[in-house]
Design a protein that fits this description.
Layout lengths: L17 E3 L2 E3 L6 E5 L7 H13 L4 E5 L3 H16 L6 E5 L3 H7 L5 E4 L17 H25 L2 E7 L5 H7 L3 H17 L5 E6 L3 H18 L6 E2 L7 H16 L6 E2 L10 H11 L40 E5 L16 E4 L4 E4 L6 E3 L14 E5 H6 L7 E6 L13 E4 L16 E5 L5 H15 L5 E6 L5 H16 L6 E5 L5 H14 L8 E4 L10 H12 L6 E5 L5 H5 L4 E7 L2 E6 L2 E8 H14 L9
Parallel strand pairs: 3-4, 3-10, 4-5, 5-6, 6-7, 7-8, 9-10, 11-14, 11-20, 14-15, 15-16, 16-17, 17-18, 18-19, 19-20, 21-22, 22-23
Antiparallel strand pairs: 1-2, 12-13, 23-24, 24-25
Helix pairs in contact: 1-2, 2-3, 4-6, 5-6, 6-7, 7-8, 8-12, 8-13, 9-12, 11-12, 12-13
């Protein structure tokens, strides 16, 4: 099941050329960047002003919601004013539930986005038993409802995005496939086949999810299916409901980056709970950071992969102390550039020492190892913290502690006893290194400064598999970047792409130009974004649009303020009902706009309370969490 040209070499998957007005995407054209307005579509002035800000930030396609016929009609006026101002970028109408609005919008804008989960279906969360005959009857019903839009777009030379969303799959798909990547692909093809039957191919396809593992697998399955069928449509990439700030950027980098490094993707949108013009520079950085120029030539190209690209399973590794053996991935903090290590230094790694109590307070995001180079430590460390020393320093100090280990280059392994547990660095710059030198209990540190480090890391994992070695592996990323956002994106791409494939038992980020607190939070953020280790509350927060029924940024901040201490809890914050119920299935609690000034609360996908005034809704959410026994009081 081929999903890209070569998983060991970044070669862009060539897709069909699609025209969105005068803008061309797919084929050999550059990756296109887009975003979506948050203003009410009936507020023409605000919609125009926001579109202008997005375009000036570099947005090449502007998406605007059209929840009813009125908004769809108003797209004509918005487009007219934008063109008068000299902005000719194509507009995309975002459609949910309302086929008649889609048909109106297609007359005014260059592209229409439809969601196959709700274009012809109303979601009731019913499990339905289908026979082949009754299922085919459902597909016939969809075809009858969808064909008029297909023929209209074909006659007007409009483009269309068939945008499957993990949070809004139809009851029909859920009943047959479950809440799975396979179901997402099947949902898209129900609509693609109608288009193809009518000779309409000006399509772009997306497979969005807030869960990065589900999202990556769904896109790969879609690409594989398109390759098999012989017609590859352009892919629109995005992690939906990524959230805001550091979390939103890392999560987007993990999901989008994992696909870009494999040569998948023709247009992207970074969905942040922030002003839409802030999404565009992040998208541009993602494209730039995944553009490979300085590549290390792999010695060979394996004919298989060390992981299943379509189903998540962590690589089997032996247990060495707190690494491997199915344990959560570890975080290594780098303190080797400190002239002297003090207890206060460890605050940046999640350890707070109280001299008055002579006691360590260990945070949820506390590093598991610190690397101190040739330094020494003259105070008692927390019992959970391990130490890495340079090999010669480890030998000269004759460390006997079971929690202190030597860090060496793999080529130096022969200078240590077979009984020693060594952390061995393996890098493409060290041609003399040999993976056969690894001891049974050793930990392998993979490090590369090349642009194709993801491909090289995969190659090493394949070599380990062929040698029958199951040593724990830590992914080390080194960067000199001074920009925090770029740094977060780099870490998300180059570590996240491996973690979503189940490869890696730890992360070590060496970033001397970043504050150690940011390095630590980013390391844990990557693990949380890949659902491998939870250290904080997770917010599944949509990016807002014209359908949003409350101020998402302000509300998300209020909910964070009250709940950010609830480690491991997933809270969905949805501006409207479109993806609310579905995404609640992936969240523990949901806060969803249900009408002007009204909120509905969910426990998972079940409605608990309806039509709560927004002034009372955050308190009501906290009460709901308490009533279900998931609340703990914040520590001071």
């Amino acid at each position: 099941m081929k999903y890209c040209n070569n998983p060991y070499q970044q070669i862009r998957l060539l897709s069909e050329e699609v025209c969105v007005g005068m803008l061309k995407m797919g084929g050999i054209h550059p990756l296109r960047v887009q975003s979506m307005t948050t203003a009410d579509t009936m507020d023409t002035q605000l919609s125009v002003e926001e579109s202008v800000r997005m375009i000036e930030a570099g947005c090449e396609l502007v998406r605007i919601t059209a929840p009813s016929k009125n908004e769809a009609e108003n797209l004509k006026e918005i487009k007219r004013i934008l063109q008068e101002k000299g902005f000719n970028q194509p507009l995309v109408a975002d459609i949910h539930f309302t086929p008649n609005a889609a048909e109106i919008a297609a007359q005014h804008v260059e592209k229409v986005r439809v969601n196959p989960g709700n274009y012809a279906d109303k979601k009731k969360f019913e499990t339905i038993e289908y026979t082949n005959e009754t299922y085919q009857a459902e597909l016939k019903r969809i075809e009858e409802k969808f064909t008029p839009l297909v023929l209209l777009c074909k006659s007007l030379n409009r483009a269309m995005r068939i945008g499957t969303n993990h949070g809004s799959l139809s009851d029909r798909i859920l009943s047959r496939y479950g809440d799975t990547p396979e179901g997402m692909v099947a949902s898209a093809y129900e609509f693609i086949e109608v288009c193809e039957k009518n000779g309409y191919f000006n399509l772009v396809i997306s497979m969005k999810a807030s869960n990065t593992i589900v999202m990556v697998q769904a896109y790969r399955l879609l690409a594989s299916e398109m390759i098999k069928r012989g017609r590859v449509y352009p892919l629109h990439l995005g992690v939906t409901e990524a959230g805001d700030g550091e979390d939103g950027r890392i999560k987007s980098a993990v999901g989008i980056g994992a696909l870009l490094v494999d040569g998948l993707g023709d247009t992207i949108r970074v969905s942040l709970t922030e002003a839409p013009e802030f999404e565009v520079p992040v998208a541009k950085k993602l494209i730039s950071l995944t553009h490979q120029v300085n590549n290390f030539p792999l010695p060979n190209t394996p004919d298989s992969l060390p992981f299943n690209p379509f189903a998540f399973e962590r690589r089997s590794s032996t247990k060495t102390d707190n690494l491997g053996g199915g344990q959560v991935p570890v975080v290594i903090a780098d303190f080797s550039n400190q002239s002297k290590i003090t207890a206060a230094n460890l605050f940046a790694a999640g350890y707070v020492y109280s001299p008055a109590l002579d006691k360590w307070n260990i945070q949820d995001a506390a590093a598991d190892f610190i690397y101190i180079g040739k330094n020494s430590i003259d105070f008692e460390l927390p019992g959970t913290l391990r130490v890495l020393l340079d090999g010669d320093a480890w030998k000269s100090m004759k460390q006997q502690s079971s929690s202190v280990y030597p860090l060496i280059d793999l080529s130096e392994r022969g200078n240590f006893s077979d009984q020693d547990i060594c952390f061995c660095v393996y890098s493409p710059d060290k041609s003399s290194s040999n993976l056969n030198a690894l001891g049974t209990k050793d930990v392998l540190i993979l490090e590369s400064s090349y642009d194709n480090r993801v491909q090289w890391f995969r190659w090493v994992f394949m070599e380990l598999k062929s040698l029958g070695k199951e040593n724990p592996v830590v992914l080390k990323l080194s960067t000199q970047t001074t920009d925090p956002e770029t740094f977060q994106l780099e870490a998300g791409i180059h570590a996240g792409a491996l973690f979503v494939d189940g490869l890696g038992d730890g992360i070590w980020v060496d970033a001397p130009n970043q504050p150690k607190t940011i390095v630590n939070s980013t390391s844990f953020g990557v693990l949380q974004a890949t659902r491998l280790r939870t250290s904080k509350t997770e917010y599944i927060s949509c990016p807002s649009c014209g359908r949003t029924l409350f101020d998402l940024q302000e509300t998300t901040a209020k909910i964070r303020q009250r709940t950010s201490h609830l480690k491991g809890l997933k809270i969905g914050i949805m501006g409207c009902i479109v993806n609310g119920p579905g995404e609640m299935a992936d969240a523990d609690y949901g806060y969803v706009g249900s009408g002007p000034g009204k909120i509905t609360l969910y426990k998972e996908k079940e409605v608990v309370r309806k039509n709560i005034n927004t002034e009372e809704a955050v308190d009501a959410l906290v009460d709901l969490i308490k009533s279900n026994g998931d609340w703990v009081e914040p520590t001071q």
